[in-house]
Amino acid sequence: MVNDALCPLCSEDRESTIHLLARCSFAQIMWRLSPLGINMNSIQGDSVFDWWDNLLERWKGMKENKNVWAAVGYIVWRIWKCRNNVVFNNKLWRPDAACTAAICEATDFLKSNEQLPRIGDSGHATIVGELVEWKKPLNGWVKINFDGGLDKHRKSSGLGIMIKDSCGHFRAARGLHYGYLMSPVVLEAMAA
Fold this sequence. Notes:
40% of the residues lie in helices and 18% in strands. The chain has helices at 17-23, 25-33, 48-57, 66-89, 95-112, 184-191, and strands spanning 117-119, 125-127, 142-151, 156-165, 170-178. The protein has a three-stranded antiparallel sheet with strand order 3-4-5, with helices on one face. It has a two-stranded antiparallel ribbon with strand order 1-2. Helix 1 packs across helix 2 (25-33) and helix 4 (66-89) packs across helix 5 (95-112). It starts with 16 loop residues before the first helix and ends with a helix.
């Protein structure tokens, strides 16, 4: 039985977002074992937003290093999935297995995005030659970005939505997975 007040992964401290992603012993092991080899005690921040900014500051100027960004994103996502697996299924992953899963998912993501299918003016999927840089919304506004993706090898589709504020800070996200392939046009329409 999980104590609602304690972190479900380590049972050492009260659960909070900053604890779960950075201070929890389970998460700290994952970060250290990852190819990034981060000691989370060196990343300061009292809120998850401060921590996130300080974490990303470590790789400032490395926008082109997709491997780093994919690893960071998938480690965070895998920590969240492990937490939910304890809460909802009463099953705990080992941190080393969770880290391996996160890096495998990041690698799959990078491989599947070597050529990005997008909907062109003709309504057919096209390959984009360059990525468009994200721009902040006007002061006081939020920006909602969405996209869909296909994995022909696994015969599945998915879509994601992310909200950032006018400072560029992450505010919310949602991802949906479909266990079957959809046409790119339908997937993009569902994401919108």
